[in-house]
Amino acid sequence: MRATEQAHQAVRRVVRTGETVVDATMGNGHDTLFLGKLVGAEGNVIGIDLQEKAVELTRHLLLENGIGDGRVQLVRGSHAELASAISGPVAAVMFNLGYLPGGDHAFTTRKETTIAALEQGWRALRGGGVITAVCYRGHPGGREEAEAISAWAAALVGAEIEIFERKEREDGPLLVTVRKSATADGLKGS
Ligand SMILES: C[S@@+](CC[C@H](N)C(=O)[O-])C[C@H]1O[C@@H](n2cnc3c(N)ncnc32)[C@H](O)[C@@H]1O
Fold first, then answer.
1. Which distant-in-sequence residues (6+ apart) come within 8 Å of 64 by Cβ?
2. From the CB of 175, is ligand 1 less than 6 Å away?
3. Residue nearest atom 20 of ligand 1, based on CA coordinates
4. Which pLDDT score, from 0 to 100, does residue 186 have?
């Protein structure tokens, strides 16, 4: 199974209808659409991307799929400001890192901003909530970003961590999944 599908599976196990979730790297909008369907009309999705192009592609994909009812909030900006885009506990935060396929490589995620966003996502996560990060190690900085995320996850207290990778491909995608202990609450510190 692809890392992106595994990430969906991890999120599906945790998120309930009506909850608030975040797509921290909207890109073409596939994860935002997945989250929009998952939380339903009563739920809330906050989608973030640096590029206007990603905002437009995602808006289009949502409309094409009949999700134009306001459950998704599209934010153009850096996920390093994730905390300012949310106002309460969230059930899941998804990251699909790297750059938009076929797009401008100037908008590639960077380990410093990714770690800042993960930290804010972790603080906002409700007990039992999940963060997924699909990392790509074949482009400049990708391996270092994947290593920084694995180290960040390993240092968390009150987290269950899973790392999925295909052993036969050293530069293939790596999925880091972090689940918060069920007794912890979002927005109460790290
Ligand atoms: C691999 S793509 C995401 C694919 C997307 N999840 C999908 O389903 O199509 C990575 C995205 O991260 C975005 N990005 C890069 N740095 C960012 C940052 N600091 N904050 C938010 N988005 C960022 C890029 O613009 C790009 O659209």
1. none
2. no
3. 78
4. 59
